[in-house]
Design a protein that fits this description.
six-stranded mixed beta sheet, 7 helices, 209 residues, 10 strands
């Protein structure tokens, strides 16, 4: 599945590799990869593969799930479609509390006894998704884990998830995508080493050389 999803993401340019003209992250880090999984929503066949894949992951790894919760904003649509396919309640967690009305941060109903799976489009450093997990736990929910479309597999995210004792399962990942990109001639074979070096430590710019 990881190779199939990687190929689809590359085809629609939801993930774009540029090892010789890197993108600049908000942190200033130079990155050879740009990821926008929102684009999957614009391609019905790809969207169906992604949502069915997430459904399969959740059924396999989190069979006791009661509620699907999306991350704001990229995970909301995916969570809604997956919840519909699974005939489960759905909601999402805002980036911060509303400043009006009931000042909700969690939109949708979550009971203290509910077992929740968080749907996320992309795991980079895992900081934002773990904030969502914490918010749900504070509301009394049991968070079984995360189901995501793509993960960079960065050490920082792996360490954070392990420290928080939170499980993540992804449809595809950086290493699979790079391998498919070489096979499909999106990048040259000699670029593969550079890309994997970046994944090993994005803060080290030596991969650019």
């Amino acid at each position: 599945m990881e190779n199939k999803i990687a190929k689809l993401l590359l085809e629609i340019k939801a993930v774009f590799l540029s090892p010789n003209e890197p993108f600049t992250w908000a942190s200033g880090i130079k990155s050879p990869i740009y990821c926008d999984n929102r684009l999957t929503l614009s391609y019905p066949k790809v969207r169906d593969e992604v949502e069915n894949g997430l459904k399969t992951l959740i059924e396999e790894h989190y069979p006791d799930v009661d509620v699907i919760m999306g991350t704001s904003t990229a995970g909301i649509a995916h969570a809604a479609i997956v919840a519909d396919k699974m005939n489960l309640p759905m909601g999402y967690v805002r980036g911060s509390q509303k400043t009006h009305g009931r000042t909700n941060q969690i939109e949708g109903k979550v009971n203290p006894s509910d077992k929740v799976v968080v749907v996320e489009d992309l795991i980079s450093t895992a900081g934002s998704v773990l904030e969502v997990v914490d918010t749900l736990k504070e509301a009394g929910a049991t968070v079984l884990g995360i189901a995501s479309i793509f993960t960079y597999g960065l050490k920082k995210s792996i360490d954070r998830l392990n420290q928080a004792n939170v499980k993540n399962v992804s449809l595809s990942n950086f290493d699979a995508l790079v391998s498919v990109a070489v096979d499909e001639s999106y990048i040259k074979e000699e670029d593969q080493k550079k890309l994997l070096q970046f994944r090993g430590d994005p803060s080290d710019p030596s991969w650019l050389k």
